[in-house]
């Protein structure tokens, strides 16, 4: 009986040792090959190839007017790879000597990187009608916000007055916008061409709006353009990766 017990203990010890060796083997394989596997997770992303760093990009390209309000006021797209990849959008007023970056969440103090060039500029991404009827005391524009964690995107607008009041406000336009109109003191939004009412956001604004019939809205003057546009025939003179 004692021999049987000793034999059983020996078998148990050998099995336990075998399990430990198998676990150690898996751990060793994980450490040896995980960098390669991890690189495959980044497929489609510039930073995901074998852990390589994201490079900065300097683009030399002719700026182009992508929306004109009047002869003095307009928006330009600059430092872009093409119409749907990267770039910064600026509001310009040549009469008042204003040039202001309006690209959402961006800074032009640093070069763009490869990830910036993967997507369209967030102002240029707005494909609805954009009617600018405000004076040169107002800077207003639509922009997109992307949800990187859950996917999807929403559109918002920013409205800023340049006088002493310094009013700045914005609103959520949801994911589908047919028309955005900007006037002094108010912003009007329609979600589709069949809507009979505007959502009217007044300044200053707390995020609330009132509904108003289209027939009740009178626009005194209309911008030269009614949507953002871009000439894809303009190509960069050089694109440098660092």
From TrEMBL:
Transmembrane segments: 12-33
Pfam families for this protein: Tli3
Keyword Membrane in annotation: yes
Superkingdom: Bacteria
InterPro entries: Tli3-like_dom
Domain Tli3-like: 60-181
Keywords: Membrane, Transmembrane, Transmembrane helix
Protein's name in the database: Tli3-like domain-containing protein
UniProt source species: Tenebrionibacter intestinalis
């Amino acid at each position: 009986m004692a021999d049987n017990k000793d034999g059983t203990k020996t078998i148990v010890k050998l099995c336990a040792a075998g399990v430990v060796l198998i676990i150690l083997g898996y751990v060793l394989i994980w450490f040896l090959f995980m960098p390669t596997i991890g690189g495959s997770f980044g497929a489609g992303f510039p930073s995901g190839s074998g852990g390589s760093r994201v490079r900065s990009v300097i683009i030399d390209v002719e700026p182009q007017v992508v929306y004109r309000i009047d002869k003095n006021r307009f928006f330009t797209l600059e430092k872009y790879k093409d119409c749907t990849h990267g770039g910064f959008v600026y509001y310009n007023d040549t009469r008042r000597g204003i040039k202001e970056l309006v690209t959402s969440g961006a800074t032009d103090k640093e070069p763009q990187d490869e990830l910036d060039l993967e997507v369209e500029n967030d102002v240029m991404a707005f494909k609805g009608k954009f009617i600018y009827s405000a004076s040169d005391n107002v800077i207003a524009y639509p922009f997109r916000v992307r949800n990187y964690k859950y996917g999807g995107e929403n559109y918002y607008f920013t409205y800023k007055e340049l006088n002493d009041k310094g009013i700045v406000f914005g609103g959520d336009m949801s994911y589908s916008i047919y028309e955005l109109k900007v006037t002094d003191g108010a912003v009007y939004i329609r979600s589709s061409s069949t809507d009979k009412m505007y959502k009217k956001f007044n300044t200053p604004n707390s995020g609330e709006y009132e509904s108003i019939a289209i027939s009740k809205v009178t626009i005194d003057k209309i911008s030269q353009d009614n949507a953002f546009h871009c000439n894809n025939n303009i190509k960069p003179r050089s694109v440098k990766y660092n």
